[in-house]
Amino acid sequence: MQSRRLGKSAIHVSDICMGTMTFGSQTDETEAFRVLDRCFDAGISFYDTAEGYPVPPDTKWVGRTEEIVGRWMKTKPRDAIILATKVSGPSHVWFRSPCRNGMTALDRKNIMQAFDDSLRRLQTDYVDLYQTHWPDHDAPYDEMMDALDELVRAGKVRILGCSNETSWGLMKSLAASEKLGGARYHTIQNNFSLNNRRFEDELAQVCRQEGVSLIAYSPLAGGVLSGKYQGGAMPEGARFSRYLQMEGRQAAMGRRFVNDRTLAATERYLAIAQEAGLHPVTMATAWSKQHDFVASTIVGVSAHDQVDPILDALDLVLPDELMKALHKVGKDILYPMG
């Protein structure tokens, strides 16, 4: 098991992080505990959740994931777990949060209320990494960073991070923290996979120059890289099988992840994995870890029997020739997710 530093902070985490966004919807508590126990026993120290989970977002079960994670943490030594959670971004932009009746914002009132509610559900008195779930580029970054800094100074949060942020937004937040003399972002949690390499365009350089670590999420491109959607398959219970039957944001997300170009790229990745004698899930997870700007890769499962191919990537280093073959697919089918 490899451990890596989060940004410029003192915290080291396992280079695989277990995500929990299906716990409480697709995955019940008993199965969630089996998944979490399996990961903990394998040496994974890093666990990620959010106030708005589980997915798909719905007021009928919002907060349930944190409650499940909190009950599970009671079965383990608290200081053996690096816990990350998130405060929702604004609900007036591309996505309406199921929290606080859809009246979320990244201001002091919402941040403090969200954090207190998360602590209660998680049954803990601190969070190791507290993240903004998505940004508000028109709101004052000074107020947001000052409120987050207050949580750090109070000893309730160890370090801060952002998610779904842009190069401009990350630099804006770092500048605000520097001006205020307060806590800065040490991490950014963004989508990064063989089917979505846009992070490498600009954000990777920001991370390198500013000492910010990527916590890569969706390394399997929402499960697409496992091959389960190939040939027009729509597995029962799978996320995009459901999303493609819905409307609005979920349908748009489904089309972004599952389309002719992503399936064509995945077909080639599957062939490379087969030739290398690797499970495609193992290969995609190992590829994500094999970048200098990535501190940890967030994986997610809905059942405990899906964990083993992920754990096989723990100490796996893909050879140069394999990395070159994967890179060629990305050059031939550029930006399959748009």
Structure in words:
- The chain is of the alpha/beta class and 338 residues long.
- It is globular, with a radius of gyration of 19 Å.
- The model has no long low-confidence stretch (mean pLDDT 97).
- The chain has one domain (3-224, 284-321): NADP-dependent oxidoreductase domain (TIM Barrel, Alpha-Beta Barrel), CATH 3.20.20.
- It has helices at residues 29-41, 64-73, 108-122, 141-153, 167-180, 203-210, 239-243, 248-257, 260-276, 280-289, 308-311, 320-332; strands spanning 3-5, 12-14, 16-19, 46-48, 82-87, 127-132, 157-163, 185-189, 213-217, 294-299.
- An eight-stranded parallel β-barrel has the order 3-4-5-6-7-8-9-10, surrounded by five helices.
- α6 links the parallel β8 (185-189) and β9 (213-217).
- It is 39% helix and 14% strand.
- α2 crosses α3.
- It is built from twelve helices and ten strands.
- It starts with a strand and ends in a 6-residue tail after the last helix.
